[in-house]
């Protein structure tokens, strides 16, 4: 039963969109299991350039069915926009897109609360994407969320929505001094969503089990990254779901034995959007150069991403949590011409050398990187498709990262296009 997960192995934005698009050629089903439209995948293929936030990047391969599992949170306005855009540009969705009836809906009050909570935190703000993710998952955990299935029964929805909205309006107005939302307006949005989106809601869990039982290939598309995981990341500077491998089981209703491959996607350096500890951050012209060369600006919010050297301490921790069977290394070409290239192999914490990730944020913020230096390379790696054509310096950098990550680097991405990829060993 071959399910393969593609997971962000750092702080998100590792280039999973391209990897999933590349691997989807071998897949029958592509499934998202966590997060919502806080994610942003840029996919470039023969049909053009697409920025997807919710719909899995596998949608561009005609043989695939794309699904969004119960562990994800769905903003119906975003979903409608993506559905409309893809259909307008000729991507067929009928019978190819299914959203779990159990997935929670991001409501307008979640988006409002996300922004109000962030501004109330002042300098300790998390730097969320402002898409309502945290409040939607909070409502899920406190059992006052609304799910896709609720949109299919509008008569039962209205009295529930009334109670839920009154509660949220009390928080919006009394705690944050914001403007209350009107029941009629929110309900009429629900009616519009139900009319347009009902054909896409269904039993994702059943579909996945049926497909796995037939021996089909299911690709589990991660969002965000291991270090943004609610439990395993740099809490509280994390997202509100579990982008690690356990989240794939919970978020799709599958069990661990059904997952045969865990593919970790690492960038050849690190980036992070939003606040929180980032020991290898480069607040200098080297960081600035990488940011501009690689266009490191958030696909969802356009914010400049913080940039730093590869952090092997964080990488090893990520391998420990996710158990990668394969690694994809992206954006190697960005480091063409950099001398030296640094790799963080340990932290110095209060005068001591540590090689694992501290659990406390205050401790993590005090960690200073201990670097080893790599000489770099001059000949470009950009667009190289054959491993033997990589310059010697790039090959030894990749080998060193592989040793430090503790899992085989099977694919190397050397550019944004589908074909700008080196397959060292097929992963599916
Ligand atoms: P939220 O998920 O919008 O609540 O944001 C929480 C934290 O996760 C913030 O630091 C965001 O910048 C970060 N984050 C959320 N989604 C992504 C992503 O897809 N890529 C990178 N960072 C993300």
Give me the secondary-structure topology.
Layout: E1 3-8, H1 16-23, E2 29-32, E3 41-45, E4 48-52, E5 65-68, E6 73-74, H2 76-88, E7 97-100, E8 104-105, H3 108-121, H4 133-141, H5 148-151, H6 154-175, H7 183-197, E9 201-202, H8 204-213, E10 218-221, H9 245-250, E11 259-267, E12 270-272, H10 285-293, E13 306-308, E14 310-311, H11 312-322, E15 326-330, E16 341-349, E17 352-354, H12 361-366, E18 368-374, H13 392-405, E19 409-413, E20 421-423
Parallel strand pairs: 1-10, 1-11, 2-5, 2-10, 5-7, 6-8, 7-9, 11-15, 14-16, 15-19
Antiparallel strand pairs: 3-4, 12-13, 16-17, 16-18, 19-20
The chain binds inosinic acid.
Describe the protein's architecture and organization.
With 428 residues, the protein is α/β, with parallel strands linked by helices. The protein has three domains: 154 residues, 3-Layer(aba) Sandwich (Adenylosuccinate Synthetase, Chain A, domain 1), CATH 3.40.440.10; 94 residues, Adenylosuccinate Synthetase, subunit A, domain 2, CATH 1.10.300.10; 158 residues, Alpha-Beta Complex (Adenylosuccinate Synthetase, Chain A, domain 3), CATH 3.90.170. 33% of the residues lie in helices and 20% in strands. It contains 13 helices and 20 strands. Helix 3 crosses helix 4. The longest helix is centred in the middle third of the chain and has 22 residues. Bound molecules: inosinic acid (IMP).
